[in-house]
Amino acid sequence: PVDGVAPLTSPRILFLTSSAFNNVTGGGITFTNLFKGWPVDALATVHSDPVPVARDVCEQYFRLSPREIHRWGWLRYISMGAPLEVSSVAGGGGAQQTVFRRTLIKLKTWLFGDGIPQEACLSDALEAWVSSFQPTLLYTILGSNEMMQLAEKLRARFSLPLVVHIMDDWPSVIYRGGIFSFLQRWKKDRLIQSTMNVAAARFAICQDMAEAYEVRYKKPFQWFQNAIDVAAVQRFVKNPLMVGSPIR
Questions:
Q1: Percentage of the chain surpassing pLDDT 70?
Q2: What is the pLDDT of residue 95?
Q3: At what angle do helices 181-198 and 145-158 cross, to 10 degrees?
Q4: Of these four, 11, 172, 174, 191, which has the most CB atoms within 10 Å of its CB?
Q5: Angle at CA 111, nearest 5°, toward 107 and 112?
Q6: Model confidence, pTM
Q7: Nearest by Cα to 140 from 55, 70, 198
Q8: Residue of 225, 199, 236 whose CA lies nearest to 214
Q9: Which residues are paired to 119 by β-bridges?
Q10: DSSP conformational letter for 177
Q11: Taking 50 as the threshold, does the pLDDT of residue 7 lie above it?
Q12: Which of 165, 161, 162, 158 is closest to 130 using CA atoms?
């Protein structure tokens, strides 16, 4: 304290995301710019990003596994992003497994379309990791139904204020195709509205999006997309006398 005034302290942010800090993807770069300069001991990330993470902004990571995000029954044999390569297993076993997986994926697509039913669980390992970090705020970009479920489980378990940042209008396009995809869409609509209702703050990526979301979800939104180091690009700024007027 200085003159009886307590010093400002940064919230201990627990970040839940499918796209973590990196210097490769649009989301990873945005998060890096947004949180650059945040105390590294006050930032921890729970993620499912297949891209290798960067540790210049955040050093504490928890990689989600089937313990936290799992599928039921035969769906657990489907790897959504993995290539269907024929294995070199003797006796053609690899080829048989590939045909089997392809058949399951076709069946999944026919039943559920572009999504896949999954459930979120607050595992003992994740709960212990979060407890050790002792967060004071939960920040998330949401995403799939299971990520929204996990956000709510974390918010409720640790009594955290929730900040939601929507990067794209994914709620309008996910869970399409398949004869049962309407069930996933129904679940998605319920989850995102309930999340918006309990959130302490909500961000979109621009003013137009914020205004549209205020109409859609009946809650106020602020907006922020990315940050730029003005000094680093100042030498590229054109001379106003050399370009059209007005400058756009």
A1: 82
A2: 66
A3: 30
A4: 191
A5: 110
A6: 0.79
A7: 198
A8: 199
A9: 70
A10: S
A11: no
A12: 158
